[in-house]
Amino acid sequence: MTVDTTVNLNDLDLADPDIYTAPDSGLGVLHYLQEHRPMFWNKRSDGPSFWAFTKYADGVAVYLDKTNFTSERGMQVGQTESAARAAAGKMLIVTDGRHSQLRDVMNPALTPRVVRRLEGAMRETVGGMLEENAQKDSFDFVDTVAGRLPLSVICELLGVPRADWDLMIQWTRTAFGSATSDDVISDAEKAEANANIFAYYADLLAERRDNLGDDVISVLIRGQIDGTPLTDEEILLNINGLITGGNETTRHASAGAVIALVENPDEWRRLREDPSLIPTAVEEVLRWTAPSLNVMRTALRDTRIGDQTIRAGERVSVWHPAVNRDEDAFPDARRFDVGRTPNRHLTFGLGKHLCIGAALARFELRVLLEELTGRVARMELTGPVKRLRSNLMWGVDRVPVHLELDHAGH
């Protein structure tokens, strides 16, 4: 990709969601920073300023520094510190001190055995939607397949009745600002959707307390830290975190996988001809799509990243689409390669804050790629892709496609 040399750093604000609706999805700006200002002080007039890191090594340094940085004052650019502080110490992704104990409570709900138990439902969801929509002149892969797979998995894990699944995807997409540039979601609409989510799960939590099962909510009810059960607030905050990661992240990775395979037909043929490449293809999809646009930390004291001094109280951010395309870390980094190995991308983070749902997301993507390569002979885009207008998630809202099934089997 040609780097945009017209970037005006004085006016640049990476927290502007419009950047990521551009035809290059903001990569021109991020590549420019990586090459010319890899440690960029992003000044903001309507929010806290922050450091933006676009080099892989600097991202690793931030992730692995457990002493000098905290996630408890906000973990993504654009989030308010007050909201983060309200959840700090209670919600896994914005907890430092009790992080390991809270993680231990949640892990039983996401074991490989639990994940494997969902495989049949995953294949039924993906296979059914592919068979139902293939041969249509065009359909939206995001709404029809990419959004349905993670939604069905998270709802199964949480014990949400099937009749409420469509409502869940509507609320989560509104709450987390997943909107296209011509469909801006207001702050009031986001707040209302968040309130609806919390109210729904508060009712479900009350129901589970009287009728425990083997779902995630029941696991959290049974969980204890130092002999003390989790409060309703702690349970609800962590349910919200699972919904965000489990639904939004995998949805954008799945849709991005189809775009990448359509735009790289040699890699699509290579994957169909050699299914043993699917595990490495999953990692390449994760590297390439980087659904979580950025992660943020706040310095607890003066420290250094590389040659840059970071003052106490300053915010630092790691930009995943850029660090995952750093030529110093990934040879031929701007090429989509289903056989790439090693592939130490930072899509799921690193260190103690490694995404708790990483194994689940990998499994969902594996099922998606296996079903696609096993059932579909040809894929093509039938119109323009709609990028998200968001400074939290880096993804797509609409991917119009036409699929032709492989009736001969593969």
Provide structural commentary.
The protein has 410 residues and is an alpha+beta fold. Helix content is 46%, strand content 12%. The protein is built from 16 helices and 14 strands. It has a 5-stranded mixed sheet, with helices on both faces. The protein has a 3-stranded antiparallel sheet with strand order 4-14-11. Strands 5-6 form a two-stranded antiparallel sheet. Helix 6 crosses helix 16 and helix 10 packs across helix 12. The chain is globular. The mean pLDDT is 90.
Question: What's the structural blueprint in terms of helices and strands?
Answer:
Blueprint: H1 27-36, E1 39-42, E2 50-53, H2 56-64, E3 69-70, H3 81-87, H4 99-106, H5 112-117, H6 119-133, E4 139-140, H7 141-146, H8 148-158, H9 165-175, H10 187-210, H11 216-222, E5 224-225, E6 228-229, H12 232-263, H13 265-273, H14 278-289, E7 294-299, E8 303-305, E9 308-310, E10 315-319, H15 320-323, H16 358-375, E11 376-381, E12 386-387, E13 396-398, E14 400-405
Parallel strand pairs: 2-10
Antiparallel strand pairs: 1-2, 3-7, 4-14, 5-6, 7-10, 8-9, 11-14, 12-13
